[in-house]
Amino acid sequence: MTEVAGLAPELAGAKEGQGQVPVASAGERFTSYDVEAFEVPGGREENWRFTPLKRLRGLHDGTAALDGAAAIEVGGAGGTADARSADAPRGVTVETVGRDDTRLGDGGVPADRVAAAAWSAFREATVVTLDGTPEPVTISVTGPGAGADAAVHLQLRTTAHTEATVVIEYRGSGTVADNVEVVLGDGSRLTVVITEEWAEDAVHVGAQHFSLGRDATVKATSVLLGGDLVRISPTVSYRGPGGDAELLGLGYADAGQHLEQRLFVDHAVPHCRSNVLHKNALQGAAGRPDAHTVWIGDVLIRAAAENTETFEFNRNLVLTEHARADSVPNLEIETGEIAGAGHASATGRFDDEQLFYLCSRGIPEDVARRLVVRGFFGEILNAITLPELRERLEAAIESELAISGV
Amino acid sequence: MSILEITDLHVSVTTDDGPKELLHGVDLTVRGGETHAIMGPNGSGKSTLAYAIAGHPRYEVIAGSVTLDGADVLEMSVDERARAGLFLAMQYPVEVPGVSMANFLRSAATAVRGEAPKLRTWVKEVKTAMSDLDIDPAFADRSVNEGFSGGEKKRHEVLQLSLLKPKIAILDETDSGLDVDALRVVSDGVNRYRAAGDVGVLLITHYTRILKHITPDVVHVFAGGRIVASGGADLANELEEHGYEKYAATGSGAEVAS
User: Which intervals hold domain ABC transporter (chain B) (predicted)?
Assistant: First the structure.
């Protein structure tokens, strides 16, 4: 159930250093804005080997035209009024910009072919700048519709010492490849919740580029619920010391669903911190393809990154048969001067003994399963400070449980 | 008054070599207000009896009947049995990571009582029950049985007994792994619950020491998957003196006969 590979960086698949031989370090991974700089993946490359390429609808090989349109709305947490209007919330600036906007790319550079394809294809980007202490902002991305595919580009920016909360909600049908840049100014604190609440048919391959200024703090929570295939690759980099990234996440995969989270935290400057906790629950069904989750956690502490403190943890709860959880934590340390570093991965079954114990106290089977799943995800959901959002996600998880009637 | 009737119960367990019969015809009646002790050597099938009554999926009833106040227990799911008034304090309580004891107890009480207990009175009720068993209130926030010592697990089993108020309680080796003080606390808890109502208790044990704290009305000797002798409390003393040897032959004889 649990697979632990050796050094498993992202380079394979790029023209330089590609092939069956893995590169020596995640730090050597290839990046480019140009889709053609990447070889078309065949499925055996380290960074594609868990992804069912056939289900990517051509995002990886250039056959997806990416000519559809995904709707992007920016509003307050409570409503959908477009914040591009004059009555935008105080401290929130929303711009639609062209490809030539010089700020694009501040967050990072694509590290796989789909991210580069999205970068090469988007026509307009949405840039949301947060300043001061604005009210929570919600950005909703709605898929282009069944049968269509679209490239999306989003950038969030915080000015120095801003404190803000942003929710990015993905929903709708179709196929989306995107890059989300999150560029934090010095000393700013950003809480961001990203929810994948897609319709059943949707395919989403996304790259998230977090770039933290000096003493900046980001607390990101990813919630992967919907879609046929969702593959998200967050990258965290630090532009100055004192940066602090907390990345929480949960995924709930049911029959046939593929949920993949591929993380790369690049500690290249001293005195930074990262903490990662990602939890998946899997619920398959007989006669259907497996429920599948993949978690890759690459953390690199470069020689210059003294006094780094990092911990990453992936936990998977397998609720039924017909489920597969792959988990590959990688920690590379190039300096002896670290404050602390650890990684862990645990995959366990919700077993008959637990079920028997709870039921033997009168608790009906469905309630017992819900108790266990709720308890499992509680740590992640409780960190979401927007009560309405948290309740909506809790309800969504409960209904996932109810669907298959396990 | 409640009555648990077990008649000619045959139970098998699934093993790698196919099903294996462990109980070869158990007859036993426990009435509310009575305490029955079942004593026997390891491997005689005592725990199998407990799990079969509770409905553990590993055990299959191949013949016989179990009824509670006339209702067919074997037709009920595990949770239905508990809601009907059966309770099994387990020898090895199961750890359930992620589910807090407080949440678990409230969910169980809600299920068994048919409605959620009122929060104010519930909090007080749990507090009192925990302090009766010398349980630190901090346990309420910990995951069910996770990282608990053997003694802490047993205390929590008796805590559940006192909160869920079953008609018939089966205590499966609740005394095992307890030191003298813990044994007294746990026994006092069971006795308090016995005194509070007409509960029927089926006390499964390997040793006589718990019977010095919880006095049984009837003692049964279990060997070879069935009851081979029954008597009053003094039968326990005899067992303590002479051991199970005398009954071992009867037990294995029964196995051959089956």
Answer: 4-249
